[in-house]
Amino acid sequence: MVFGLGWVEGAKRGAAVEAIRLVRDGFIVGLGSGSTVAYAIAELGRRVRSEGLHVLGVPTSFQALELAVRHGIPLTTLHEHPELDLAIDGADQVDSRLNLIKGLGAALTREKVVAASAKLFVVVVDERKLVETLGGGVPVPVEVLPFAVPLVMRRLGELGLKAAVRTAGKGKVGPVITDNGNVILDIKVDAVEEPAKLDKQLKQIPGVIETGLFVDMADIVYVGGREGVRKIERGRKVEKGWTDAD
User: Fold this and answer.
1) Are 151 and 73 in contact (CB under 8 A)?
2) What are the C-alpha distances in Å from 56 to residues 12, 29, 86, 193?
3) Beta carbons within 10 angstroms of residue 94's beta carbon
4) CB atoms near residue 232 (< 10 Å)
5) Are 118 and 30 in contact (CB under 8 A)?
6) Average per-residue pLDDT in the chain?
């Protein structure tokens, strides 16, 4: 546990710090969104200042951009650097095969584009995010063109899926609007037994921009817990209990 933080925040920071150890001088780094990645961005900024590390960051959201600027990380774009050395992001759920649900922060499309642009995609989570099977208490987010919402809702119903437009909640009337100007539908699924199949079905619906199912994308997952940080690598099926890959 990191001194002064509860175990959850300490676990998040611990996982983030371990991930940032992978960054080398000259790297182009994709910067994800969310509370765990915020620790990674802060640590990367610390290394830039204290070690003179030369890196460029590609943010996945306005939040990530603001944090990177605040911590002194120079930024670039995929237009300038279409292939990244490394992308670091969080996840809302991680299953035993390192498939992910992402998108509760509504940045899933840019996050997936950046992750797919990287040679190595690294995920940082605390141990509460680990599940045997995706779904359950976490919806599958889908980014949808606003014009297409009625069609998408009807097609989801035909697939036997229930969904709702994500609303902004207290302080704003109306739906959550992504950085791309689209809306998010949250699909309730008890268990995603075949993530690749569901991802394909959803993407076949006209108007669906991207899904929050990240299938066979994560190369390394750093899991922060009460006892420290564990590293899980792609290609290793981890049974319930999550033993260390090292």
Assistant:
1) no
2) 23, 6, 11, 38
3) 26
4) 22
5) yes
6) 93
**Structure tokens of 95?**
């299953």
Give me the active site residues, please: 111
Residue ranges, the chain, pLDDT below 50? 1-4, 237-246
Residue 65: HSE in the Cβ half-sphere, 13 Å Cα cutoff? 8
How far apart are alpha carbons 161 and 178 in whole angstroms?
22
* Class of residue 151 by CB neighbours under 10 A (exposed 0-12, middle 13-18, buried 19+): middle
| pLDDT tens readout for residues 105-138 | 999 999 999 999 999 999 999 999 999 999 988 9
Could you tell me if 111 and 148 are in contact, meaning their C-beta atoms sit under 8 angstroms apart? Answer: no
What pLDDT, in 10s, does the model give residues 150-174? 999 999 999 999 999 999 877 778 9
Tokens (6 digits) for 89: 């992001």
pTM of the predicted model, to two decimals?
A: 0.91
Full set of structural domains in the chain with CATH: 7-131+215-233 (3.40.50.1360), 140-212 (3.30.70.260)
- Using CB atoms within 10 A of its CB, is residue 169 exposed (0-12), middle (13-18) or buried (19+)? exposed
